[in-house]
Design goal:
It is built from 5 helices and no strands. It is mostly helical and 109 residues long. The protein has 2 domains: 30 residues; 74 residues, no CATH class. The radius of gyration is 20 Å and the shape is extended.
């Protein structure tokens, strides 16, 4: 591989990262209230709310219904690529669509 091909490849990668950053900034500028609305929507997903309904996450049908209700009914969360991960006290996933483990997500967040 020639030096010029490597330079072109690396410049393309850098340009892509710059474009993603710019798009993110423009998105916030286009509607600066989105981030605040998300924060408000997530405020109500607290321990008090989840304590009453958590046992329903152990049933596949109820789990699906609850996830859909939480993610879609707020009116805010549908503007984001949102995923809801539910784990039991042992860290086992409860019908999560994505394979990420509790430890992996805990490390990320």
């Amino acid at each position: 591989m020639s030096l010029s091909a490597i330079i072109i490849s690396e410049n393309s990668k850098k340009e892509w990262e710059t474009r993603k950053l710019l798009a993110s900034r423009l998105s916030t500028q286009a509607d600066p209230t989105l981030e605040r609305q998300l924060s408000i929507a997530l405020t109500y997903l607290d321990n008090d709310f989840l304590l009453d309904i958590f046992s329903r996450f152990y049933n596949a049908a109820d789990n699906s219904f609850l996830r859909d209700s939480i993610l879609r009914s707020s009116g805010y969360l549908d503007k984001y690529d949102t995923r809801l991960f539910v784990f039991d006290a042992s860290g086992n996933g409860l019908f999560n669509d994505d394979p990420e483990s509790f430890n992996t997500l805990n490390t990320i967040f």
